[in-house]
Amino acid sequence: MNRLFYTLLLVITALGTAVAQYSQRSVLEIRMNDHEPIVVSVDGRYYNKHGRTITIGNLPKGWHDLRVYEYLEYRKGGGRAKLLYTGRIRIEPGTVTACVVDRQTGRMRTRTMDIEDAYLDYDQPDNDDRYKDDNNRRDRNSNILNNTDLNELKARVEDRITDTEKLELMKSVLEKRRYYSVQVRTMMEWLAFESSKLDFAKWSYDRALDKQDYWKLEDVFTFSSSKDEFNQYISSR
C-alpha cells in the first residue's frame, strides 16, 4: 500500500514538474527595421524558414545565443544568408520578446511583454468601462481558443491521415471560435502541404483577433508564390 502511495506521489510530482516547465516557455519574435527577409539561429540551431518576421515558440527561460542573417533570395530559387547580428539574449518565462535589428548599425533593440498583454483582443472597443463588469467580460471571451482547447484539437487532428481530413476537422471545430495569429501559426504546422497551409491561413483570417499581426504568418510559407497569394489575400480583406 505504501509502495503504491509513493508511486502515485512520484507520478503526480513528475506531472507537476512537466506542467511547470511548460508554463515557463516563451516566444521570441525577430525582424529587421526595414522588414527585409531574415534567417535566424538560436543556440546554434538554424530554423528552416525565412521571412520578414521569424517567430520562435517554446523557448526555455535563460540566456540564448542569437544570430540574425539577412536572407538574399535568388531569382531562380534558393538564396544565401549574410550575418547582420550576433549576441546573447535573455528570455524570461511566460513572455513575448520582440527584437528589431538595425541594418545600418548592426545593433538590436528588444521589448519584452507578458504573453497575455502581447496578444490582447484588439477588436474590443477602447472603453475602460468594460473592465468594471467581469461577468460580461467572461461572456465576451468565452469563444476565444485557449491552450487547453488547442492541445485537445491537436490530439484529434493527429488521428487524421490526410490534410483534407485534418482541414475538415479544424474548420468544423474552429468555425465559431476566435484566436490569435500565433495560434494559427501553430495549427498551420499540423498540415503537411503548403497548399493546405495557405487554405487554412486564408480561411482563418476573419476569425483572428490580432489582424494587424497576421502578416507575420508569411514566413510559414516556403514558396514565393504562396507568400504573394497570402499577402494579396489579407490586403484585399
Structural notes for this entry:
The chain is of the alpha+beta class and 237 residues long. It has two domains: 25-118, Immunoglobulin-like (Sandwich); 128-236. It is 38% helix and 25% strand. The chain contains eight helices and eight strands; from the N terminus they run αββββββββααααααα. It has helices at residues 2-23, 115-118, 134-141, 147-157, 163-174, 181-188, 194-204, 224-236; strands at 26-32, 38-42, 45-46, 53-59, 62-73, 79-91, 95-101, 108-114. Helix 7 runs parallel beside helix 8. The model is unreliable at 11-23 and 120-140 (pLDDT under 50).
Quick overview:
The protein has 237 residues and is an alpha+beta fold. It contains 8 helices and 8 strands; from the N terminus they run H-E-E-E-E-E-E-E-E-H-H-H-H-H-H-H.
Main β-sheet, spatial strand arrangement? 4-1-7-8
The DSSP helix count reads: 8
Separation of the first and last Cα atoms: 64 Å
Overall number of structural domains: 2
Large-scale geometry: globular
Estimate what percentage of residues fall within beta strands. 25-35%
Largest sheet: 4 strands, mixed
* Radius of gyration from CA coordinates: 20 Å
In the predicted model, the low-confidence regions spanning at least 5 consecutive residues are: 11-23, 120-140
Number of strands: 8
Which class best fits the helix and strand makeup?
A: alpha+beta
Average pLDDT works out at 79
Task: Determine the oligomeric state from the structure.
Answer: single chain
What is the string of helix and strand elements? HEEEEEEEEHHHHHHH
Into which percent range does the helicity of residues fall?
Answer: 25-40%
